[in-house]
Description:
Elements: E1 12-24, E2 31-43, E3 46-51, H1 54-57, H2 63-69, H3 81-94, H4 99-128, H5 137-172, E4 174-175, H6 181-193, E5 200-201, E6 228-237, E7 240-251, E8 258-260, H7 272-275, E9 282-293, E10 296-307, E11 311-318, H8 319-328
Antiparallel strand pairs: 1-2, 2-3, 3-4, 5-7, 6-7, 8-9, 9-10, 10-11
Helix pairs in contact: 4-5, 4-6, 6-8
Amino acid sequence: MEDSGRTPSSTAWQATIPFFDYIKAAGSNKTISQRHYVHAEIKNDKLYMSCDCNLGHKGALCDHLVRAAGGDIFLLANRSRENQDALIQLWNYAATTRLYSDVCDLAEIRATFTQNERMLNDELKKRNSPDFNIKLKDETDAKIKNLRAESRRIKCIIASKEAEILDFLVTTGYSLDTHTKRDNALRVLEYVSNDKYDKSIYLPIFLPEDADNNGWYMPLCSAFASSFGLVTAERSKFKKNYTVRIQTDNFSFSEGYIFYDSPLARKAGVAWGDALPHIHNIVQVRDVRNAEKDGKIIPIIKFTTDTPTKGKVFVELPVTDFIKYLICGEL
C-alpha cells in the first residue's frame, strides 16, 4: 500500500508565528496578554524550532513549541490566513519527524510521575490520619521513602527527556521523513488510548484545518474533529481563561458516518462524478454499541467496507481498532 503520509523534503523554509501568553505585569498584580513568537525553520532537511517566551529565554522546553508542532490555531495571537497557513505547513513538516514520538514518550513519563505522586500523597495522608495503625508505621514509612526516591528518579528522567527534545529542536534539528504522519497518528492514538495515562495531549491525531494530506488511508475533514477526540478546552493562567486544543480519547461515532479513501470526495468544488473514479473504498458506520472488555465499557463499531474487488463486507471492531483501520487501511 502506498504510504501517503510523507511530506516532500525542502531545503529551505522558515516562518515566525505569533502566539499569545498570559504573564504577570512587572511591579503589579495585573495579568496581561503578551505576544511571543515561535520561529520554525527547515535547513538541510531538518526542522528547527525556538520560542521567545519566558521559558524559551531560560533554555527550557515550553508547551508553545509542542502546540505549534500540533497546529493549535487557538493560541495564535493573530489568526490571519498567512499565520494559519504557516502553522499548517509547520505541522506538515513536524509530523514527518520523530518529534511526535518523543513528545508522547515525555507525556508518558510525566504521567508516570503524576501517578507516583498520587500514591505518595495517599500514603502521607494515611500516615497522618488520626486513625492510623501505629503497627504499620515501619511499613508505611518504607513505602513513603521508596515513593519519594522514585519521584526523584522520574524527575531526572523528565528533565533529561525535555533537554533532549529541546536540543534537537534548537541545535541538532529533527530530520524530516524519519516518520510518517501515519506513524505519528498511531503513536498519539496509542498514548491517549492507554488506561495508564491521563488521556490528553497537545498533539492531534489529525489536523482538522485545510491540510492537503494528513497521511491517513481514509482522509478526514474538519467536521470529524470532535468524533476523533480532538476538542477545545478551557485553561486558566493567572485567573485568565483561554482556549487550547487537545487530543483526548473521547471518540464518538454515529450510525451513517461515511469515509472515503480519496480526499477528492470531500474537496470543495469537486463534482461527485469527477471524484467517484478515484474512490476505491467506502466505509460506512452501521451501528455503534457499548460492550465490556477487560472490565471496561468500550464502544464497538459495526461498519461496512465497499470495494470493487470484494464488494460490501461487514466488520465489527472496538473503537480504537476502527480508528487504526481508518489510519492504515489494514484489518
